[in-house]
Predict the structure.
Amino acid sequence: MKKISVIILFLIFLSLNNVASDVYRVTNDTAASQNCIAVADDSGHLYLFWQDNRSGSYEIYYEKIDINATPSFGNATKISSSGGDAINPSVALVGDVLHVVWQDNRDGNWEIYYKNLTTDGEIFPEDIRITNTVGESVEPSISAKNDIIFITWAEEENNTYTIHYYNVASIPCPDTTPPTIEITTPANNSNISILNNTVVGSVTDNSGISIVNLSVNGMLQHSWTTSGSFSKNVSYILGQWNNISITAEDTSGNIKTVVVYVYVTEPSLNVTVNLTAPSEVELTEDNG
């Protein structure tokens, strides 16, 4: 493949009727940066993907840019692990997940590979092979509707290229959903007796729980590794506000913390006094 030194640039347009206001440089290496494709979200971020041979062979690189700030180059991340050449990327954005395909010759001929990552930069570790044919699979394109991913490409067979497509509803995506924590007892901002020292609630997650920590006033009192309902006895400090904190981490590394506050008082004392008339008492005189 002929090497061409290309600088990746992007334009910010003031409106559809105006010309570009600024041109910004994204890459700054002596390697070839080519075939850039980009997608923007609704929060003012641009996600760029391109092929780059700075590592000796072509790999797919990625960079997230805030279009409301002056960008700086040098923050590119390699997302493919070809070992051969990975070229011709295509990208689709669904929610907070970026779906990327490219053609890759790590297997001895060109095949289509797929990967996804979140808009926060969490990269799903596996390169997923989409095609497995004798002929060449090239020039992929990707689009999405709801949770269904559509991948198209040109397939070579008997020296003739034909167009193929593949729709997948279950390509694995990075888990970005934190655990769900509910504390049902005690209620937040409530006054409780120091004798009411049981914390009741539940911790659940779509992938699995790694660790749950329950602390009171910053002091760890319980840890466990299972999801579902819980009931834990804790120790409070009398006569002040106490904070009950539960932090859960799932098996994908997502973390959630929920805190409730309670004011701890002395237990109420209910004293009942029964007054009854004395029994009849007979008095006798002792004359010695």
